[in-house]
UniProtKB/TrEMBL annotation:
Topology relative to the membrane: Multi-pass membrane protein
Gene3D superfamilies: MFS general substrate transporter like domains (1.20.1250.20)
Protein name (database record): Major facilitator superfamily (MFS) profile domain-containing protein
Transmembrane intervals: 61-91, 98-117, 129-150, 191-211, 223-241, 306-335, 347-366, 387-408, 414-436, 448-472, 484-504
Residue ranges occupied by any Major facilitator superfamily (MFS) profile domain in the UniProt entry: 62-506
Length: 524
């Protein structure tokens, strides 16, 4: 029993790796980092087109570009949060109908993610990112143009297509980290991608509030600006983001392979691709597996305990931030504060600050704690070490959700600043929870990581759709305090599920390696 993790009968389990040179110390064929102490997991090939062979600065710049464009794309989700009242008045619909524009958008993200992921598995990720960026340009321009005809149904469909355009970024960016980096390089970068995907969007209502209150611009320009910036993002992705998916021989995947295999390339390395070759949207099939089988794969995976835990861990905490984003304007626009749209938009700044704090804490905590646990475990890395990040997630989510509900229920007594502090605490926990689940699934189940991320996205968006759909009804029926006390209690319970996941995680990995749920479902 290593550090509380129950050992299975099998000696080798997918996901477990000796990253500090211990078991394979005498094996000269294994490639290591520059220090010579850390074994590279997975092992890079001799192919110059293998992303793991690219310079680290190049890989970091590519990830930074993708994260920046993804952050811009994710602004589509809260785009109407701060000006729901304005849209309700302009389009002459109920306030609840204006809020549902976010719910319909999230539904589009969830359904489209299910379709885009198998496309990426078969033909690579590059063409999917380019399509998403281009569709975001078109759908955002469409949404802004509805201000001329004042057609609510047209705006609803524009929001749905914005969700479809966002889906490639939400479902595939985390997996790109697995394409570009070795296990020991992923911690902070995974936290950074989750901040860009789920934290940076909190600045959107701040900007939207300013744009909406500006007489020379108006709410339409929040859509137009998104279209313009995504147009620039499309050009940058086209020029500087080559395909990251790579068919790595299984014997090089020493974190996945558990059998005795040679650690040698048996074929000569191909020539390095030219810049013009990299511009092609497609670079051939990345797998021989059936598209239809890949399309159906996520559904049986919901029965895998690690995937179910990841869905709850990430999807629920993100769902709480979604419902806060939907109702926050109600808190500040109404009595007793009567903020303007611009002032209400500025209240989302705390959420963004919280996400930045969460990035720093998650990146530092996960790398520091994981490295300590590896050393104490004799140089052997277990993916369950990533679950340790749930500890601060539990603390910050409990403080944030309970405190937000109590303060929001009597904002005249506590003031807006107290509400903002608890909001920041919620988003800190959101970044940590999302990072913990994504890192664990990526490292523990690398061979099906993209399908597990699809499960996360589907669950997260459908759960958020339900929360956004019923948000105002629940507030009116139960009030802020009761509602968020319930949310906080649910979150505490989910975090506590991490204890059995940590203890039995390795046995779970070994069991489902022997009893492949996808093979049982005839999908592999």
């Amino acid at each position: 029993m290593a550090l509380g993790i129950l050992e299975p009968r099998a000696k080798k389990v997918p996901g477990t790796a000796n990253v500090f040179d211990q078991e394979w110390k005498r094996d000269p064929t294994l490639k290591r980092d520059r220090t010579g102490n850390i074994i590279l997991v997975p092992q890079p090939s001799e192919d110059p087109n293998d992303p793991l062979n690219w310079p680290l600065w190049q890989r970091d710049l590519m990830l930074l570009l993708l994260c920046v464009v993804s952050a811009i794309a994710t602004t589509a989700s809260p785009l109407v949060a701060a000006n729901s009242v304005v849209l309700a008045v302009v389009f002459r619909v109920k306030f609840e109908d204006a809020a549902l524009l976010t719910a319909y958008h999230l539904c589009g993200v969830g359904v489209a993610s299910w379709l885009f992921v198998p496309l990426a598995r078969v033909w690579g990720k590059r063409h999917v990112f380019l399509f998403g960026a281009l569709l975001m340009v078109i759908s955002s321009a469409w949404g802004g143009s509805t201000g001329k005809i004042l057609d609510y149904k047209s705006l609803v469909w524009a929001r749905i297509f914005q969700g479809i355009a966002l889906a490639p970024f939400e479902s595939l960016v985390n997996d790109v980290v697995g394409d570009l980096y070795f296990v020991h390089e992923r911690g902070f970068r995974m936290a950074f991608t989750n901040v860009c995907l789920f934290g940076a969007a909190f600045l959107t209502p701040v900007c939207v509030g300013f744009i909406t209150s500006n007489d020379s611009l108006g709410w339409q320009w929040s859509f137009y600006f998104l279209s313009i910036f995504m147009g620039a993002g499309f050009v940058l992705l086209f020029l500087f983001l080559p395909e990251t998916a790579y068919q790595r021989p299984r014997y090089l995947q020493i974190d996945v392979n558990v059998g005795p295999v040679p650690f040698h390339d048996s074929v000569p390395a191909p020539p390095k691709h030219s810049f013009l070759h990299r511009l092609a949207p497609f670079s051939g099939r990345k797998t021989d597996e059936s598209f239809l089988k890949l399309l159906l794969r996520p559904f049986p995976l919901f029965l895998q305990p690690a995937v179910a835990w990841g869905c709850l861990m990430q999807g629920v905490i993100i769902g709480w931030t979604v419902i806060v984003g939907v109702i926050l304007a109600m808190i500040f626009l109404g009595p007793p504060l009567f903020f303007t749209e611009e002032e209400a938009g500025k209240m989302y700044t705390a959420a963004f600050i919280g996400s930045m704090i969460g990035l720093v804490l998650a990146g530092f905590y996960t790398e520091y704690v994981t490295r300590i646990l590896i050393v104490r475990n004799g140089g052997q890395y277990e993916p369950e070490f990533r679950i340790a990040l749930v500890i601060p997630t539990l603390v910050f989510s409990g403080i944030g959700l309970y405190g937000f509900g109590i303060a929001a229920s009597d904002i005249e007594k506590y003031g807006w600043l107290v509400v903002e502090v608890f909001l920041a605490s919620i988003t800190i926990s959101m970044v940590m929870g999302a990072t913990a689940s994504a890192q664990y699934l990526l490292d523990a189940h690398r061979d099906i990581a993209i399908e597990t991320f699809t499960c996360l996205i589907i669950f997260k968006n459908l759960f958020s759709f339900v929360l956004a759909y019923y948000a105002y009804q629940w507030v009116l029926e139960r009030g802020f305090e009761r509602m968020f006390v319930i949310f906080g209690s649910i979150e505490v319970g989910i975090c506590l599920l991490s204890i059995p996941m940590y203890v039995f995680g390795k046995r779970n990995r070994e069991f489902f390696y022997r009893h492949d749920i996808l093979k049982l479902a005839r999908l592999r």
